[in-house]
Amino acid sequence: xxxxxxxxxxxxxxxxLLQHFKDMGLTIxxxxxxxxxxxxxxxxxxxxxxxxxxxxxxxxxxQRVTEPFKSxxxxxxxxxxxxxxxxxxxxxxxxxxxxxxxxVESEEQIVMVAEAVKKAGASFLRGGAFKPRTSPxxxxxxxxxxxxxxxxxxxxxxxxxxxxxxxxxHLDLFADVDIIQLGARNxxxxxxxxxxxxxxxxxxxxxxxxxxMEEFLMAAEYIFAGGNTNVILCExxxxxxxxxxxxxxxxxxxxxxxxxxxxxxxVDPSHAAGRRDMVQPLSRAAIAAGADGLLIEVxxxxxxALCDGAQSLDIPCFDAVMADIERRATFEGREMMPQ
Length: 339
What we know:
The strands form three sheets. Strands 7, 8, 9, 10, 11, 12, 13, 14 and 15 form a nine-stranded parallel sheet that branches. Helix 3 packs across helix 4 (144-157), helix 3 (107-120) packs parallel to helix 10 and helix 5 packs across helix 6 (213-225). The protein has ten helices and 15 strands. Strand 12 (231-235), helix 7 (253-260) and strand 13 form a beta-alpha-beta unit. The two termini are 41 Å apart. The model has no long low-confidence stretch (mean pLDDT 93). The chain is an alpha/beta fold and 339 residues long. The longest helix has 17 residues, at 315-331.
């Protein structure tokens, strides 16, 4: 249930109403904008009669929320959420590019790529230490050693890092990671979602391979329910019957998320098609659709990459794509976040 207060309501009366809802055992999502103050009531609101709430003279209107996701719902929080990470802002007109290799392979490799993507204008370094692979015989990543190499690249370049977690057992290893990525295969790993909800780390939540929009937003709701409100959504393409590309980028997901939720949404054009020659046109589409950033795979030598070389840009190609991204994002009125 949403309770919208009248403008310039007496703060003492607001506090009394707030306490009344708390005494009923409800969780209150309090959102105060320039013109509107909203109480988002979460819990068993069936005991609340709208007429009783409207009887309070500071209440303008009451609305029941039919969607199962509450905290991430734009009705609860009309203003776009901005996530602040390492001096950078994500969302609400701030545009970020997160770039780097699919997997960390060596110190030389990750530092070289980090220096290159920073020079080109990326504001975050992405790289996989723990790698979920379809085949148990494929390269699974350097794991804890890979995290150490990512942190070394961060130390040398100053770029904050984004990397994927696969188990709640590894959470302590991610203490110095700036953004924890939850991959598509783990979008509905509910135990992991709960643990990330109890953390204070920004979470980059990727949409599952066949997840509906409601399932995607409910996964974000799990993290919010644990107390962590620093969630960034990532559209990375969904599985369809098409076989010529890896996934189909659901570009409609970007404006749909913007209508349904206040959370930032970025697009991963690399995984969307699985082809490096489609990264630039899909990046253009994402910017035009209103995305708050991009997640792009870059490798110093894609032909020799241990993971996903076919969709990785080499450094000269990334430079060209970044020049195009900056031009288009600026034209669309987005503020490119600095390195």
